Amino acid sequence: MKKNFFILIASALFFVSCRQEADSRYFAPAVEFASGQYELNLERQTSLEVEAVLSRPAAVAMEVRLVFGGTLREGVHYTASAQSVRFDAGASRARVTLSLLPDTIMDAESSITLAFVPGRDFTVSLERPYKTGVQVTKVFHTPILKLLSAQKAVTANPFLAEEIPMTLESHIPVQNDLTVHLASTGLVLGQDLFVKGAEAATLVLPAGRQKLDFTLQIAFKDESGYAGQGTLSLAPGEGYEVSGSSGALSVTLADPVVDFKSLLKTAALNGGAGYQIRQGMLLRSGEYDGNTTVDLGLSSPGSNYLRNYRNMYRHPGFSCMANAATSQLLRMSELFPGCLYPAPTAILDYGNDQSHRQFTPADSVFRFVPEPAQPLKGVIRLHKPRTFLARIGTYAQWQADVTGGKAWVVDSRATGGDISASTHPALTGTLSLTLEKVEGTYDFTGSSASIFLTAWWSSPSEQFMQGFDTEKFDVSQENGLWKVQYKLWPR
Q: Global pTM?
């Protein structure tokens, strides 16, 4: 009997030790939306219940926070009954109510999105509807207009007077020609901005049309240091409504003052004005030939223009005013190779050799147009054509020894160095050269400032480009103009 008792006890202990323990781990329920998409037509309803579902009933009460998005704004176009869905203990479904405010909705089609914010007491699966959308439709009989642009924000230099393509769009075709008004804040329509081809800040959407493409023109300004900012939008008007999602174009205009210190480094010789800049012409090999200098400097303090100088000094050996070292802007005399020494008829000026013979200078030749966000880089333009003149005549007579010295020395003493006032018989004619257009770029961000220019030239003088080496230099003719390319850098 005692032996049987111990066998019974052992059997019980064996049974208990072999029994599998209960799984006490907690698995959080997964939450999802009952539908991935809802539709709401404001003609039929103005509220909607969005339902959330748990994969199994909640063990305890819990809240799942929501984040709202879409084209409609909470508190403006609709209200939500709560910012979360609350599941009571034992519940597996919960709802949030969206109440639409139809009078504030000015789009035929709009949307609301809802998404769960992850939490500790539940899981969210990307494979299940963890977000949902509400497509809201409203019927309008009055055209609802939008202003569309590929760019939401434009930053430009007003000197370039850029054009911005834009579109006016209606949700339905208009029955009659519809006049639409534009509005601007910060910038003045008709002064800073205007519609190309329109007399006023208005657009006309033709009858039967839903879209109108137009061009917004930035008004040209030549004002170094200018800065302005504003927005362009649709203004309310008769016969149409402005869409709540109509874009407003942000426009920033800036023409910063350029810092030329990396370019203007070495002063002109003989105490002259400006700084020495080297000039190379593009060869057909792709390299730049030569480093003939020109004296350039600011047209005025704070200006983004450079001018060239005709620097003269009192020559100690001749006791007269003479040109300083070579300062040929864009090497103009080289465009008249038949008028250079030793040609019998050559460019004449106050100087002892041909390198001191120059064309007249000009102010405001190069206009630097900086990038608004990076003024040390940008483009170079010519605001308007510039014409340069040079005197030509008999070289031997100009260099001849006369009473008082060489002919040009005596003449310089008589005119005070103003060759335009000379009536010397050696001067028999004038060369005329016009810089018609300039396109270039500059970059002063590195240790070596560099400028690349393309210049288009014209001249009524028959000697222009006669005998120029077109096989060596990369020059060409376009629309009756000679195109020459240059590189400029500081000396």
A: 0.76
